[in-house]
């Protein structure tokens, strides 16, 4: 046992921050054991922990023992971690010693405030986080990632990532996906999403599959700031012996150490072919890498490796006990699989390299190992890249990477008639109006009968109402009813009458904004808030005789221009609002109600800065402002407003909940004696979360029609999860398995919708029906089978299907717009593991997301008599450009390739699309023939929509794809030639 521990590399964590030299640490650790000399401890690295909330941060070290310490002499073989109490500088500490190396282990500190890059090493599924990279043999004093990389790649911080492979089991395939989510969670927990410096990975064997799965999840993360920021750091990875296209059955068993996992073996097996998990993963990640300019460097083995002897039955005790590599030596991962056949592609030769050694030793570099030189060279190249990533758009010229815009959105048309300043100001105000900015308030449920009235008796709130200045914060748990309460306040006439003085000449204005993270970009942005508030404020000032001096001042200070939506830039809106807030011409009182600050699509600090500006007026200003806002009780809001007047909604709603339950159950239960005990039990378990109450009462309504006793109904209530996320999970698990692909398509399309038209029930219904289709013909057949038509009759069927497919997670408003029932439902759907939870094994080969589903619907647009939104000609100028970016975004987020679908479009479909696209080319038509800008081929669509991967596939499959005979469009030919030239100069694009 003693020899084992002296050959083991240990990790020591929770080291006091003041320890700075190796000898100090050895002395400190020796003090934790009786009569154990510090000279018997050799420390090889000492680095600051990555845990962001430690203050001061502790340190972590790697070390070895020359002699076995007493506490290890009696350790059992299964022990891998020990807690060692010590006293240092008169303070008690507990050091943690382990040899499993799970989690993140930094190996070095970098001079200066922060490293210039982070380099994370991920071992294979059966590998050890440290030992996988260390040379074989007795000498464990050198490990190249720890001892060589920090020296030869200055500024880089080397980090090991260790994980347990016990998630792999015979019941579920989700081992790989779970490990990928675990990797992302560990990076976030260690603050790696907070930096902007390059992030580089070194991955070995099946660890590379885990990394690729994580990359795909991060690229596809929707509206999650942390994941987006983490992905933006990624520069690329060096992949050693990664079985990108699968392995032979018995070779795979060797890598997972004979943990016979049926689904793992099948899906990572080379036999799964193009329909398998690995092929879909490789196709997706390679596309994402091309679109996001990520560089992967592929290293493959040249020597054979011993493998498990699979001639014995799996349950044979000799095989299970020995696990000896007694099978015939083979190349475990052949060059084709290790490089996804890039090794045979002349254009991609620079991204591959052979490494002498077998599957294990290709990452076990020794001191002065010549094999490591290309790897170090590649790492230095990664770290030498620009510190800020390029734009998410590709490097194509502008006409290629974005759809061409119309004149109506870029410049104001010349005015035919000179209008008065008053008329122009009227138009300026009108141009600020956008229906989508009011959709969220309209969609919020009205209060139930007489609920919410308690707030008008709250002395702190009433006191705020009576004043002309101040802040009031309405906070509460998710689902507690904050938005419904805010809507009630705005609708209640008494709220607006408080403090009103008929003798006063003060112009009183009430403005509001409801943030909606599930909605369009305007609905969740500061731009949308500015636009809404300014529209209301300017409109009220114009209708007030007392405020005429302010209007005159605005007309004198704002830039002269023909009014129009594009005239209102962000800077001009801010200038106009500043003018009103700081004016000294007439008394004005502005009351602002802003709902759901936690749904602002930006940093909380940003919105807080804006709120502080709104409420802190210069002494000389005649404008007074007061603000009521709602949000979840995040720490940053509590710190900023916790000492201001506020209330927590859940503390006041128990009576409202009982009233709601009593009234709702009265119409659902035939036995009225059940109502009170059920209402009491629901109120007790709800903890003030009104959304949970509505979900539970629906469950009771569905189950209570045949109830003859109270006990089963109480058991039903007690058996339902109290956490909303668990409740949502219960809902999706009830959806029939054969309908879940529809569920996935609907919810994905909903969270990727860009404008109000795409939230329409008819558009989403059509998008869901064709989501699985891979060609134009398949789409038409799917719509025919579903009897889809562009008529109002389809709305009834669509509403019914939407609710069925979603299990009730979506609602359909009176305006035929679809939304998730609550922000918590949105947060549930955009979780990285949602697809795996919903689709289970089917998720292995599903790679398309909502962007792809929307784009298919766009390409299916018919003529004037056909489906209108989102490509209706009459609305084209007003619709956001992002309508046309779904295809491009599908490439960006999933590596989607449109080759098959675009090539399946019939000629008549190009005629339909030209009707909707011709107005976008109007400004460029001077000097060209009438048909110069019409699109006659998939190439034209690919250029117009910026589909880079389609064009790259075209270059790969056709020697001269842009020849004039194949590309008659004049402008398109110019663009194509430019692209072709760029490709020849930069073949790695």
Explained architecture:
It is a single chain. With 989 residues, the chain is an alpha/beta fold. It folds into six domains: 1-100, no CATH class; 108-299 and 335-383, Rossmann fold; 421-650, Rossmann fold; 654-722; 731-896; 899-989, no CATH class. It is built from 44 helices and 19 strands. The strands form four sheets. It has a seven-stranded mixed sheet, sandwiched between helices. Strands 2-3-1-5-4 form a five-stranded antiparallel sheet, covered by helices on one side. Strand 15, helix 25 and strand 16 (623-631) form a beta-alpha-beta unit. Helix 27 packs antiparallel against helix 28 (675-686), helix 27 runs parallel beside helix 29 (690-703) and helix 38 (850-859) packs antiparallel against helix 39. The longest helix has 17 residues, at 526-542. The two termini are 55 Å apart. Mean pLDDT is 83; it is low at 166-174, 316-322, 385-418, 864-882 and 976-989.
In short:
With 989 residues, this protein is α/β, with parallel strands linked by helices.
Would you spell out the secondary-structure blueprint of this structure?
Blueprint: H1 2-6, E1 10-15, H2 22-30, E2 41-48, E3 59-65, H3 70-73, E4 81-88, E5 91-98, E6 103-106, E7 117-122, H4 144-147, H5 149-152, E8 156-162, H6 175-189, E9 199-204, H7 206-219, H8 225-233, E10 234-240, H9 249-255, H10 262-267, H11 277-292, E11 295-301, H12 317-322, H13 335-339, E12 352-355, H14 373-383, H15 398-401, H16 407-410, H17 421-431, H18 439-443, H19 459-466, E13 470-475, H20 482-491, H21 493-497, E14 507-514, H22 526-542, H23 548-557, H24 570-581, E15 588-595, H25 604-615, E16 623-631, H26 635-641, E17 646-648, H27 654-666, H28 675-686, H29 690-703, H30 710-719, H31 724-734, H32 740-751, H33 761-769, H34 776-785, H35 793-806, E18 810-812, E19 818-820, H36 823-829, H37 834-839, H38 850-859, H39 886-894, H40 899-903, H41 907-917, H42 938-945, H43 948-957, H44 970-985
Parallel strand pairs: 7-8, 7-9, 9-10, 10-11, 11-12, 13-16, 13-17, 14-15, 15-16
Antiparallel strand pairs: 1-3, 1-5, 2-3, 4-5, 6-8, 18-19
Helix pairs in contact: 6-7, 7-11, 11-39, 22-24, 27-28, 27-29, 28-30, 32-33, 32-38, 33-38, 38-39
